[in-house]
Write a structure and sequence with these properties.
Blueprint (H helix, E strand, L loop, with lengths): L20 H8 L3 E5 L2 E4 L1 H20 L3 E2 L5 E3 H7 L1 H4 L6 E3 L5 E4 L4 H11 L8 E10 L14 E11 L2 H21 L4 E6 L9 E7 L5 E6 L5 E3 L19 E16 L1 H6 L2 E3 L5 E3 L1 E7 L1 H11 L1 E2 L2 E2 L10 E6 L4 H10 L4 E4 L5 H11 L3 E6 L6 E5 L5 E4 L1 H9 L1
Parallel strand pairs: 3-7, 19-20, 19-21
Antiparallel strand pairs: 1-2, 4-6, 5-6, 7-8, 8-16, 9-10, 10-13, 11-12, 11-13, 13-16, 14-15, 17-18, 21-22, 22-23
Helix pairs in contact: 1-8, 2-6, 2-8
The structure holds adenosine-5'-triphosphate and magnesium ion.
């Protein structure tokens, strides 16, 4: 794509009210725009990144049998009264009356809707298990919405729901989802820990959070320096340096972190309240076992910026960068040909074809953080100058060599 037509332009200054790094850099580089506290537009560049994140998540959800669908965001009060969450969740849920006086709420999660789908469609054990997920907006009346896109009042979530005939079947699948989540965050390139947390008000079991170690995080976790055990500060009894309670060898370390995913073994709590039963082999009625599993792709984008940037701008990991290469044209006739050849080779190129100073182009390039910078000028002749965003050394490559390197 030509940068001359890309909407919008970058900005020299961060918004005055921006406190967090992701807020400052994503706005300056033209990835997101804040409409009001907690409410964001994903601009064309930001939308490209989120779609790449979503695609990685989608592949891993499909690999464990997840079926993608799309559920509504406007919910009738009735289903929420069945679980008692209309009253319990008043602080977080946006609730209103429409012009006919009907009470509705905006989705902050979708357990009730999935339960309603299940009771309409499940009769016997043969109809289970069910694994369904969607990507959609969630609304939450967050008290503080100050961490840029890490905490929106309207944000994107991928939520998966699973329904089972037994606790064992639920917990076996729960472990599969844990594995899928670990794969997702590994593919995304994060340094993360899986930590135990409380189940909130709706489950007695521990839940598991996926926490990315980050200075800009709002969470605090403790984890073992030898084994894979860790807990959120909210339930951890101990302090830094304590011996690990699991492996009894390592020491516990404290870190700030960002919660990017959370999985919940919910049991039969929802099925009992919403009367979702199936008939077992003997024809006996039993409540459905249920789990839910969430990841926030917009928070993931913000997290990446928090952990991967320098004083010049963002440094995207290649797997979720908005473009693979940023082609900087500094005079000469060659840029168009390079752009065409790379595009034909299936490489995503942002081509800075603007008639502005070289320094401005380089500054934008560093700010936007596309992993590879290519420069074409009179000086490079029939070659292209190649540089990684996070390294200083440059090399001059011929076209064939360049395409080989970019498609390797
Ligand atoms: P937090 O403790 O940060 O408020 P949560 O535990 O309430 O989050 P969950 O209900 O577990 O959030 O939601 C699942 C995932 O959705 C989170 O792990 C996170 O990635 C994302 N998420 C939750 N709240 C927000 C938000 N306000 N803005 C952006 N993403 C969010
Ligand atoms: Mg959570």
């Amino acid at each position: 794509m030509r940068q001359s037509v890309l909407f919008p332009k970058t900005r020299k200054e961060a918004p005055k009210d921006a406190e967090s790094i992701n807020h400052k850099l994503l706005v300056r580089a033209g990835f997101v725009d804040q409409l009001m506290a907690g409410s964001w537009t994903l601009l064309p560049l930001g939308w490209r990144v989120v779609n790449k994140i979503n695609q990685i998540i989608r592949e891993e959800m499909n690999a464990i049998g997840g079926q993608e669908m799309l559920m509504p965001l406007l919910h009738p009060r009735g289903i929420w009264d069945e679980t008692g969450r209309w009253e319990k969740a008043k602080e977080i849920m946006y609730q209103m009356k429409d012009t006919r006086g009907k009470e509705c709420g905006l989705a902050f999660t979708h357990e009730e809707v999935v339960m309603d789908l299940l009771r309409k469609n499940i009769t016997s054990y043969q109809d289970l298990p069910v694994y369904v997920y969607h990507f959609s907006t969630k609304f939450r009346n967050e008290a503080r919405a100050r961490s840029g896109i890490l905490r929106g009042r309207e944000f994107m979530m991928k939520d998966l729901y699973s329904a089972h005939t037994s606790e064992k079947d639920l917990m076996d699948y729960y472990e599969m989802v844990k594995g899928a989540y670990a794969k997702i965050f590994t593919r995304l390139g994060f340094n993360f820990k899986i930590t135990e947390a409380s189940g909130g008000v709706f489950t007695d079991r521990r839940t598991h959070e996926f926490q990315v170690l980050a200075e800009g995080g709002e969470d605090i976790i403790f984890f073992c320096d030898k084994c894979d055990w860790g807990q959120n500060k909210e339930i951890f009894e101990g302090k830094t340096g304590d011996k690990c309670k699991k492996c009894r060898q390592g020491k516990m370390i404290q870190s700030k972190s960002i919660e990017v995913g959370n999985i919940f073994p919910l049991g039969t709590w929802f099925a009992e309240r919403m009367r979702v039963y199936y008939a077992d082999k003997e024809g006996k009625k039993k409540p459905v076992w249920f789990g839910s599993y969430g990841i926030g792709p917009t928070r993931v984008m913000g997290t990446l910026v928090e952990v991967s940037h320098d004083d010049k701008g963002i440094i995207w990991y290649p797997q979720i960068a908005p473009f693979a290469v940023h082609l900087i044209e500094l005079g000469g006739e060659k840029a168009k040909e390079v752009y065409t050849k790379l595009t034909e080779a299936g490489i995503e190129v942002l081509w800075d074809d603007r008639d502005i100073a070289a320094g401005e182009k380089f500054a934008d390039c560093d700010l936007m953080g596309i992993p590879i910078r290519l420069v074409v000028s009179d000086k490079t002749k029939d070659k292209v100058e190649y540089k990684n965003r996070n390294k200083d050394d440059v090399s001059l490559l011929g076209m064939d060599e360049l395409i080989l390197r970019l498609t390797a």
